[in-house]
From TrEMBL:
It comes from Exophiala oligosperma. It catalyses: an aldehyde + NAD(+) + H2O = a carboxylate + NADH + 2 H(+). Pathway: Aromatic compound metabolism; naphthalene degradation. This is aldehyde dehydrogenase (NAD(+)). InterPro entries: Ald_DH/histidinol_DH, Ald_DH_C, Ald_DH_CS_GLU, Ald_DH_N, Aldehyde_DH_dom. Coiled coil: none annotated. Residues 22-479 form the Aldehyde dehydrogenase domain. Pfam families: Aldedh.
Length: 501
């Protein structure tokens, strides 16, 4: 085990420099080896409030908030280029701190610069509007930045999720305070110096560390925020939302999911199995759109199940640094326990049949690993309804197309992602149209793009990431009404038919 004194300390990023905020520190572990990687600050309430105050000054200075669109475009584009040139170092950090296979992190991070490029472009091309206002009046609508915005980001895709939020907010001219997850903050902190190199004015992007229950809470309770953007659990949303409401702070929240993977008999069995593996086991099932419910039409079911189990048993769980590893660690010991509890409840209380996996495991005797697991169950059970956020997948036999749609829509309060797999063109449209979910993929899963709005219905959250929707959610709309012909004669004597509105 590495000695604590040998590991680096990574300070907060404030006003364009590393800043020490506290005596207390948090140790970041490598989930695959349980070894400490670094320490980060446990930022105190006073320090959080100082950072927000300095951020307010940065916003008021106008250096970024009133910068030309062309300047925002130039800085974000340059940041994209810098990030693209440094992908290998970010991949290494991301793999170490999340325990996810290097193959996944290479594929995911190679695309992250696109988010900076997309929002840079939106900043440059975004135009206001002129409304058809009655009379000799010109009414312009312009979008202004909000102010100091807080972004609370998670550990499962640390860099992707933080970058998509930062890019949208910065493109719109805001000052951003990011609080990354204490479990995997290292890649996000490194973005501070990268943005500085790209020319972002100091104080425009602040990155502070700490536990959610302390630092995250202090940040969200600060009354001077203009928006809170969270990706995390529903409990976190429920802790933050009342304060945000009292402070009249709008929220975007990207919470959990229980994505159905709807598999129809027009698919060859092998392709249905490929689809299920892809949807379910990326990131060891730790994504908000994990295909955690396989809803399989009965005409496909038996052959599918047999082949699925064989393929899942063959998945290579291993060292995340090894390019041939297919399944890495889960984020923490607590997560291993949670996966085990889901399996136990499914088996003991809900009559579920564990078809493969079901147990904690280790690699070379260490790490937080859980076997890829498939449990046959029925609608309405704990595993069919609730998010595991791990590699424990429910498979449910469904009698018909209508049955699949009914289970997909009614069995859970989440509605973030869903996929429909069929070779029947009409069925694809019919089912996709009836599924109640923020994102529906047809013959795909996990597909994303900076231009494509991302966010759920119901308990999966409010608002959207990505796309023009995200950009606009980081702005406020100002209406300027310019009169060039209506005289203010209302209270003059003997005036008939004057207009006041
Ligand atoms: O998330 P948390 P956790 C879901 C998933 C998972 C569950 C819990 O279901 O099992 O959430 O995961 C910060 N005030 N998702 O516990 O705690 C925290 O420090 C302010 C879905 O890891 O919500 C971190 O930065 N901030 C999701 C961030 O919230 C607080 C990704 C997320 O951590 C806070 C992650 C508070 N009171 C989990 N409490 C997705 N949609 O991809 C915590 N935080």
């Amino acid at each position: 085990m590495t000695k604590m004194s040998n590991i680096p300390h990574i300070s907060n990023w404030v006003n364009g420099a590393q800043a020490t905020a506290s005596a207390e520190r948090i140790t970041v572990l490598n989930p695959a080896t349980e070894e400490p990687l670094a320490t980060v600050e446990a930022t105190t309430q006073d320090s959080v409030n100082d950072v927000v105050e300095q951020s307010r000054r940065a916003f008021a200075s106008g250096t970024w908030s009133r910068a030309d669109a062309s300047e925002r475009y130039a800085v974000l584009s340059k940041a994209a280029g810098l990030l693209r040139s440094r992908i290998p170092e970010f991949v290494e950090l991301e793999t170490l701190q999340t325990g996810r296979p290097i193959r996944e992190m290479r594929a995911q991070l190679a695309r992250v610069p696109e988010w900076l490029e997309y929002f840079a472009s939106l900043a440059r091309v975004h135009e206001g509007r002129v409304t058809p206002f009655k009379g000799p009046v010109i009414n312009t609508l312009t979008r202004l930045p909000l102010g100091v915005v807080a972004q609370i980001t998670p550990w499962n895709h640390p860099l992707l999720i933080a970058t998509k939020k930062m890019a949208a907010a910065l493109a719109a001219g805001n000052v951003v305070v990011v609080k990354p997850s204490e479990l995997a903050p290292m890649s996000v902190i490194r973005m501070g110096s990268l943005f500085r190199e790209a020319g972002l004015p100091d104080g425009t992007l602040q990155i502070i560390n700490g536990h959610g229950r302390d630092t995250g809470r202090y940040l969200c309770e600060n009354p001077h925020l203009a928006k809170i953007d969270l990706t995390g659990g529903i409990a976190t949303y429920q802790a933050i939302a009342p304060v945000a409401a009292l402070n009249m702070v709008p929220m975007t929240a990207e919470l959990g999911g229980k994505a159905p993977v709807c598999l129809f008999p027009s698919l060859p069995v092998d392709r249905a199995v490929q689809a299920a593996l892809f949807a379910s086991f990326i990131a060891s099932g730790q994504t908000c759109v994990t295909g955690s419910r396989l809803l399989v039409h009965q005409d496909l079911y038996d052959g599918f199940l047999e082949s699925l189990v064989r393929r899942v048993e063959g998945l290579k769980v291993g060292d995340p640094q090894d390019p041939s590893t297919q399944i890495g660690a889960v984020i923490s010991r607590a997560s291993v326990t949670r996966c085990g509890e889901f399996v136990e409840r499914a088996r003991k209380s809900d009559g579920g049949r564990v078809l493969c996996g079901g147990n904690p495991t280790t690699v070379d005797g260490k790490g937080f690993f859980f076997e890829p697991t498939v449990v046959e169950t029925v609608p309405g059970t704990d595993l069919a309804r609730n998010e595991v956020f791990g590699p424990v997948i429910a498979v449910i036999r469904c009698a018909s197309e209508d049955d699949i749609i009914r289970v997909a829509n009614n069995d859970t309060a989440f509605a973030l992602g869903a996929s429909v797999w069929t070779q029947d063109f009409a069925q694809a449209h019919r089912v996709a149209g009836k599924i109640e979910s923020g994102i529906v993929w047809v013959n795909g899963h996990h597909l994303n793009d900076p231009s494509s709005p991302w966010g759920g219905f119901g308990e999966s959250g409010v608002g959207k990431e990505n796309g023009q929707e995200a950009f606009e959610s980081y702005t406020k709309l100002k209406s300027t009404v310019i009169n060039y012909g209506i005289e203010p004669t209302w209270f003059d004597p003997d005036i008939q038919g004057a207009r006041y509105g």
